[in-house]
Amino acid sequence: MSSALEQARAWAAGDPDGETRAALEATIAAAEAGDQAARAEVADAFSGRLQFGTAGLRGRMGPGPNRMNRVVVQQASAGLADFLVDREPHPSVVIGWDGRLGSQAFARDAAEVFAGRGVRAILLPRLLPTPVAAFAVRHLGASAGVMVTASHNPPADNGYKVYLGGDDEGSQIVPPVDGEIAARIEQAAATPVADYPRGEAEVAGDGVWRAYVEATAAVGQADQGMQGATGPRVVYTPMHGVGLETVEAVLAEAGFPPVIPVPEQARPDGAFPTVDFPNPEEPGALDLAMALATAEQAELIVANDPDADRLAVAVPDDGATGWRMLTGNEVGLLLGWDAARSARGQGVLAASIVSSPGLGVIADAHGLEFVQTLTGFKWVSRVPGLTYGYEEALGYLVNPGTVRDKDGISALVRLLTLASELHERGSSLSEELLALAGEFGAFESGQVSVRVTDLARIPAIMAALRAQPPTELAGARVTAADDLALPEHGEIGDILRFTLDDGSRVMVRPSGTEPKVKVYIDATSADGPPAQRIRSARERVEALSEAMRPLLA
Fold first, then answer.
1. Which residues are listed as membrane-spanning (predicted)?
2. Is the model's pTM score more than 0.85?
3. Is 151 a catalytic residue?
4. Of 149, 372, 381, 431, which sits most exposed with the smallest number of CB within 10 A?
5. Which is catalytic among the residues 151, 356, 420, 504?
6. Which of 497, 124, 507, 161 is nearest to 329 (CA)?
7. DSSP class of residue 479?
8. Residue range 493-535, pLDDT digits in tens
9. DSSP state of 446
């Protein structure tokens, strides 16, 4: 513990942020007085460095190398700058930030460090959605992009997401580049941040945002000519994030009627006061939207997460709330079918390996290639010839020609275009799901997640399932138990896949961004009329979910 306290004192002496410095000094004093919680906090904050990987950096804010703070952000920026300077003669970087606490300060620190190390630094003009930053990398021809965001993580978190331009076309970083940048960060961290050279960043004009708005609005004008059409009445929530301004501008540009924002969640607020977790997937996150939609007699709810790279959708239902949130796979298959019918036999549909196998069936029926990728949208977005890609965690890419990352705003526009087309025909998204089940069979999915406070539980759960995989689940025999980390299964990652004799599939993996173990369950049915198919597949998903819970204890 004395070593951690020594590191903490040294950190406090050089911390440029008065707020985190004061907090750390108070924690050090409490630890020295014997406070066990303070001692544990110091030990954890100085137990190592926050790992830089394919998601860049993401973690809890606070002082210390194992937290997100101004020192860690400046070190990361110095390392990324050195990587870019070695890579090309005149590198440039676009920097965006969202509405989370600390995001703007992190973005400005990053820009000054980039500029001081010979990288042209271009700050976006104000807090904006992540898809705008991803778009800006390609639009401005930048060497790289940085987005300061923790997406849908808890309020105490923040992050630093990295894109590469050039041949990478504005996609997120992948191995081995992440390791090369991480090594440069380690080298840069050997020098106190107070000694880093600083420079002045440029501030982009509003033209970048306007170009994104125009390109994204065009997604909603394709083929159907829906401009000016009368669509369903829609309630929208940006979940206390940065989506509203851009969504309203894009929909106006595309000719859609205005959405009805949830007033309590309409403006950016990094404290996320109305939700326990600012993630549309979490129970209760859409309660305010559902209440407003009922009061306004709306026919559809759409939601973005706080940085607007994900999309959630809810439709009218006979349940207690009057609404049902569609799963990521249901939305993914709707948008996939929409993309497939427009592709005219040319292009590729892609989904991550834990997403529904139903997209492959749709692709085959339309004469399109289907590609399954590793988990993470960084892989989906890099598929050659991509027409459309998605991952079950509410991530969709409908316009790979302009953005190479999941984009909750363009997906929203495309979904409203589809919903408006159906509305004009007297139909709805729910009825279209029935039609898809009738044409392709029902593909239902579900998830079981175990959130942990002790991170050691995650590898323990995975190890127990590897050592003793189930032989039967919910009355179905497990015909194959595959460890996808092994060479014979492509070394895809820390994923266990159980295939059942009724055609169901169960996959288990640690979350890449949260302290969770996640179980993905897929079931299918082609027997009987569409509603019966869906009901049968859902019953299998529920049964398998219950069967898996004891195995995660």
1. none
2. yes
3. yes
4. 431
5. 151
6. 507
7. E
8. 899 999 999 999 999 999 876 788 999 999 999 999 999 999 9
9. E
